[in-house]
Write a structure and sequence with these properties.
Low-confidence stretches: 33-48, 270-277
Mean pLDDT: 82
Number of helices: 2
Distance between the termini: 175 Å
Order of helices and strands: HHEEEEEEEEEEEEEEEEEEEEEE
Largest sheet: 4 strands, antiparallel
């Protein structure tokens, strides 16, 4: 029997004065004890494994799931906070999404778009992707968070004329797709350099036309390259009287009686000298003479005597 019911029975019997009253008190007390043990709507307080929800009848808080019994009725349970700090929230933090605990409730926050992550950048929605914008790709093209390589065939410069090399080595062609499928290259083939000659062409491909070109050697003259052609200057006393550079400056104007002192200047042939026949000759570019009649037109015979010839000036 419950201790409380036994105590109640003892007090009741002690105050009962008649036999009928004694028996009535005993019967009521036993019935109450039996009902309390088997038919009560409230659980016994010493059974914590069983509890009643809000609104159920109770005699003490131990009978209620909420732990509170007010006016013989269990109060409703209150739900505690989901978290006190972010680490108590389910899941794990990622490079682009972090757990948070706000007001006792778990949630998450996304890292801003463009922030670095192991495989690229954060997209602002918690995922790590290859790219968000074009500048994050070497190609400059970002499509659906993936860097794409542009096709060279879409380049408007394809087919544009181009060249490689300089001077005689220059080769021409057009711009075509490179092996990477992205960039363009010139398909021209560069030539090989050769010895520089005087021809108005950069034969050795150094970027300078006729630089250091040497003109072919001819007799009695020095050649220089001018404007892509060789120009020759005759040595002193010589001339190119036949206008043929192949034999150089072939005429010795100092001693040629037919080109004395200049091309076409002819010295007279007849004359006498100390009784011996003497052809008038050219000496240092001047005709020998005994009189002015022996000189070419426009010249005078100077320093002549009967025995010693003069020269025409």
């Amino acid at each position: 029997m419950d201790t409380n019911h036994f105590d109640n029975l003892t007090r009741a019997l002690a105050t009962t004065r008649t036999r009928r009253g004694f028996l009535g008190t005993l019967a009521a007390t036993v019935a109450a004890a039996f009902t309390g043990a088997h038919g009560s709507t409230a659980p016994k307080a010493d059974k914590p494994s069983k509890c009643y929800g809000g609104g159920s009848k109770c005699t003490n808080g131990k009978q209620c799931c909420s732990g509170t019994c007010t006016n013989r009725q269990c109060t409703a349970e209150t739900t505690g906070p989901d978290c006190l700090e972010a680490t108590a929230c389910p899941g794990e933090d990622t490079p682009c999404e972090n757990r948070i605990c706000v007001g006792g409730e778990c949630g998450s926050t996304f890292v801003e778009a463009g922030a670095s992550c192991p495989t690229g950048v954060c997209n602002g929605n918690g995922a790590c992707v290859e790219c968000v914008t074009g500048p994050q790709c070497t190609s400059g093209i970002c499509s659906n968070n993936v860097c794409e390589s542009p096709s060279c065939t879409a380049n408007p410069d394809i087919g544009t004329p181009c060249s490689v090399g300089v001077g005689a080595c220059m080769g021409t062609g057009v711009l075509v797709c490179a092996s990477d499928g992205v960039s363009l290259v010139c398909n021209a083939v560069e030539g090989s350099p050769s010895v520089e000659t005087c021809n108005g062409i950069d034969d050795d491909c150094d970027g300078v036309v006729d630089a250091g070109a040497i003109c072919p050697s001819v007799d009695n003259a020095v050649g220089t390259c001018e404007g892509g052609a060789c120009a020759y200057t005759c040595n002193e006393g010589f001339a190119d009287c036949n206008a043929n550079l192949a034999d150089g400056c072939e005429t010795d104007m100092f001693f040629d009686s037919e080109n004395c002192g200049g091309c076409g200047v002819v010295c007279p042939i007849a004359g006498t000298f100390v009784g011996n026949a003497l052809d008038f000759v050219c000496i240092e570019g001047n005709c020998v003479c005994f009189s002015s009649s022996d000189c070419p037109t426009g010249q005078e015979c100077t320093n002549a005597s009967f025995t010693n010839p003069g020269i025409c000036l």
